[in-house]
Amino acid sequence: MGTDGSARMMPLTLPGGTGIEARHFTSMVFALALAGTALVAHTVGSWLTYTRGPTGWSDSRERVPVTLGTTELKVPANMMRRVEERVAGGPVDRLSLAVLWPSMEGYSEINARAFADPSDTSAVILVALEPTLTADIMDTSERLTQVWLSLASGDPLPGPAGLALLPLPGDPASGTDFVAHRSDQGRLFAARCFTPRDKALAATCERSIRLGDGLFATYRFRQAQLEHWQKLDEGVATLVAGLTPKPAS
Fold it and tell me: Are 11 and 193 in contact (CB under 8 A)?
């Protein structure tokens, strides 16, 4: 059960094969397994810090000029999680945002309670933006086909809104690690999820996608929002597009 008393989602239809020829498969699986094991350990640790927010929010809607790689952005201060970025603006290596689903609005006095909600049903979505500096970086959909399918610890179970939940190996003492995924009209959705055994921690998911202007977005959300998987990418992409200054007419 979650902290709000609702049932917590637990991972329980394998997607199609990867198309890899058999003679190449063994060595590839071994290498990917080593990398994947390290990734699992790193990810599990990162879940545990998900609910640790900044020391203070701003309700100012004033736009702060930020440079991310070669991309110029103007970001409402009430969406910015880091106080130092909010105050200084300018060049940053990574931009950390927080908004509410589905409105994608930043913090205000009116929605302060929603931003402080630590439960499994919290509407807060955390968005981290980085410049795409190399083609080697994989988003979560690519990780599913190239890494996680070979690491699966069992058959997937049906999830919300037609998703399949692929279990991954991990430390049962920490929680349950899985990938929620589905291919729809040629588009593959995949999100890495974790259900902590510690009931004081929320059950969350993480997905990364490539955006225009050379940006890479990683967003985290509660597992309760998986039922909206078809709209999540669009919501994040629209949010980021709105941060790009419009050219003067």
Answer: yes
